[in-house]
Amino acid sequence: MSILDQLRDMTVVVADTGDIQSIEKYRPRDATTNPSLLYKAAQIPKYNSLLRDAIAFAGQGDMAVPERIDACMDKLAVNFGTEILKIIPGRVSTEVDARLSFDTQGTIAKARRLIALYESAGVNRSRILIKTASTWEGIRAAEQLEKEGIHCNLTLLFSFAQAVACADAGVTLISPFVGRIHDWYLQKRGVDAIDPEEDPGISSVVRIYNYYKKHGYATEVMGASFRNSGEIRCLAGCDLLTISPQLLAELDGQDGSLPRRLSPEIAQTQTIAKLDMDEKTFRWQLNEDAMATEKLAEGIRMFAADLNKLIVYMADFMPEDWEMAAFLEQL
């Protein structure tokens, strides 16, 4: 068996891509998207019909340009998600606009809108994970959405404080970003490489996983943002791992034995204190973690920038009467 096949026996493999062709090839159970991935996928000519359908949808009714663009971006994300769900048996993650990362009510409203679009396309909400940044405001939004049966994937997660707050809020899933933590420490230490066995990104996920299992939290842990296959091997047994097509191909071509590194049984043997995480404690602990503070802010900026790039790209497909020039100047 390949390393990928062995991994599938102990971990749910998720495709970290918006490219439907790659998802068809590797047949993961779940898939996840974000503005960066959608921007790349939207530039593939075979998906032009999804873009044009989103534009046609947003062209209905009498709306101001900003509202029309929001409707178009929402429908495009749902169009890609719906196509992906025709291929995979599980769930797809769809991200809320990063500019709402500090707006609890705005995030709730956007999530409800995305779910309504999915349901109008015949997709049950049980197959959707709404992604929002692991800010205090994003976590509070997810807490409310979970009560409404809207399941959430808390992303841009870099610190233990974020993970504890997410679990206390009862979110369905978290996505700790292994690779971006790795990148920060490479730069901080001034080195070219870090052994996966000593990688701070790996250590972060292991700590979170063991804490959740030790204290009986239902929140799933999905390691994300990998830089190499060695990082993935070190997290064999994690609830889920979301992996790029390039690394899926690499794992599929590797032979040998893959030992399980994480399990609920291992977690139960450890002594791990349970923490109380109120807003004051959350904000202080996040502030004290320079890496997490910097990477969270950077990640929000990057997702917002890639959404703007997607809007600029799609402007070439939009009708002239939308008068996009003035709107684009404001991005």
Describe this structure in words.
This protein is an alpha/beta fold and 331 residues long. It has one domain (3-323): TIM Barrel, CATH 3.20.20.70. Helices cover 54% and strands 11% of the residues. The protein contains 16 helices and eight strands. The protein has helices spanning 3-8, 20-26, 35-42, 48-58, 65-85, 104-120, 136-147, 160-168, 178-189, 200-214, 229-233, 245-252, 264-268, 279-288, 290-315, 324-329, and strands spanning 12-16, 30-32, 92-95, 128-133, 152-157, 173-176, 220-223, 240-243. It starts with a helix and ends with a helix. The mean pLDDT is 96.
Itemize the secondary structure elements and their pairings:
Blueprint: H1 3-8, E1 12-16, H2 20-26, E2 30-32, H3 35-42, H4 48-58, H5 65-85, E3 92-95, H6 104-120, E4 128-133, H7 136-147, E5 152-157, H8 160-168, E6 173-176, H9 178-189, H10 200-214, E7 220-223, H11 229-233, E8 240-243, H12 245-252, H13 264-268, H14 279-288, H15 290-315, H16 324-329
Parallel strand pairs: 1-2, 1-8, 2-3, 3-4, 4-5, 5-6, 6-7, 7-8
Helix pairs in contact: 3-15, 4-5, 5-6, 6-7, 8-10, 9-10
Assembly context of the chains? single chain
Give the end-to-end Cα distance, rounded to a whole number of Å: 49 Å
Largest sheet: number of strands, sense, barrel closure: 8 strands, parallel, barrel
Give the name of the CATH superfamily. Aldolase class I
Query: Architecture, according to CATH?
Result: Alpha-Beta Barrel
In terms of DSSP E residues, the strand content is 5-15%
Q: Given the C-alpha coordinates, what overall shape results?
A: globular
* Number of DSSP E strands: 8
How many structurally independent domains?
1
Topology order in helix (H) and strand (E) letters: HEHEHHHEHEHEHEHHEHEHHHHH
Query: Would you tell me which CATH topology applies?
Result: TIM Barrel
Main-sheet strand order equals: 1-2-3-4-5-6-7-8
User: How many alpha or pi helices?
Assistant: 16
What's the pLDDT, averaged over the residues?
96
Low-confidence stretches are: none
What percent of residues adopt helix (DSSP H or I)?
40-55%
CATH class: Alpha Beta
Radius of gyration (Å): 20 Å
- Which secondary-structure class do the elements indicate? alpha/beta
